[in-house]
Design a protein that fits this description.
Layout: E1 7-12, H1 16-27, E2 31-35, E3 53-61, E4 64-75, E5 78-81, E6 90-105, E7 112-117, E8 122-127, E9 132-136, E10 142-151, E11 154-163, H2 168-182, E12 192-201, E13 207-214, H3 222-238, E14 247-257, E15 263-270, E16 283-289, E17 294-295
Parallel strand pairs: 1-2, 10-14
Antiparallel strand pairs: 1-4, 3-4, 3-6, 3-11, 4-5, 5-9, 6-7, 6-8, 8-9, 10-11, 12-13, 12-14, 15-16, 16-17
């Protein structure tokens, strides 16, 4: 039977490898991720009229992820658009942008657009079966995310604002984190990454997490392992069964340590074979470094 076409999801500032990795998640919701042009520095300056392009922003900042559609009706400060759902989440608060379609590639298999989006001009308040509904001038609450990457070549900071949503916030946090790591000049998929992670929650002490990641498997590059852990932890917190947390921010500090600092225990040797309760026993461990020497 007939299948609805995918909603164009314009991703600007996203590494192609990162986009390919996370694309199946978006595609499962009927979205079609494509590389985009960029985000304009100021509002488009075009009037909101039926037939003009409009967007819903899942993420903005150093990476933008915006679903693009067509505005169909304007009722004072309320607009109706798309004629179909974007994410299908019902009541919501998502930044609403205007869009500038630069080029449309027509294809019988899958047409797609290259577009720019503007900074938010309002808030999408309803994502229903037949349309999305937005309010012009209303500011949507988002979750600010900062990723600071330190390496021998210096330090870079990336900033994002992601959609506040129990399903999409963890995915977007993982995607923005992975993209930040590959956007540094010293990126090495075989390096070791030291993560310091802090999630600010209104009314509670911040949740902190630290871990070390090393890339030895081509199937799971180190930047994706770290990013997915960050998204998983965020998901566990955001979707806990007790109450909905009011997340204020997510801050990640990542230090890039050259070479893969991984070791396996190749052998253990005890000083004695028999001991009594309370006695001291010396155990010698032999560590085998990844592609390096052994030491004990």
């Amino acid at each position: 039977g007939l299948q609805p076409i995918g909603v164009p999801l314009v991703c600007s500032g996203c590494d192609p490898g990162v986009l390919r990795y996370y694309a199946p998640i978006f595609e499962s919701f009927g979205l079609e991720p494509t590389a985009g042009g960029g985000m304009a520095k100021g509002p488009a300056g075009l009037p909101l009229l039926p037939g003009t392009p409009i967007g819903g922003a899942l993420a903005t900042g150093d990476l933008s992820v915006v679903g693009i559609g067509t505005l169909t009706h304007v009722d004072r400060n309320r607009v109706f658009a798309f004629g179909h759902p974007l994410l299908g989440t019902g009541p919501m608060e998502m930044p609403m942008t205007q869009a500038q379609v630069l080029l449309t590639f027509a294809s019988a298999a899958a047409s797609f657009k290259i577009a720019n989006s503007t900074p938010p001009v309002g808030t999408i308040v309803q994502d229903g079966l037949t349309a999305i509904v937005g309010e012009v001038g209303r500011v949507a609450p988002t979750i600010p995310v900062s990723v600071r990457v330190s390496s021998a070549g210096g330090r870079r900071e990336f900033r994002y604002d992601i959609l506040r949503n129990r399903v999409w916030s963890p995915v977007l946090l993982a995607m923005t984190t992975a993209n930040s790591l590959v956007r540094t000049t010293d990126f090495d998929s075989a390096a070791t990454l030291a993560l310091r992670y802090r999630i600010g929650i209104e009314g509670y002490p911040p949740v902190t997490f630290e871990d070390l990641y090393s890339g030895t498997s081509p199937a799971q590059p180190v930047h994706l392992a770290l990013a997915n852990d960050a998204g998983t932890l965020f998901n566990m917190l955001y979707n806990n069964r007790f109450e909905e947390p009011r997340v204020r921010s997510a801050d990640l500090d990542v230090e890039v340590l050259q070479t893969s600092q991984v070791a396996t225990i190749s052998s253990l040797r005890a000083s004695r074979t028999e001991v009594r309760p309370g006695e001291t026993l010396a155990v010698t461990a032999v560590l085998s470094l990844y592609r390096g020497r052994e030491w004990e």
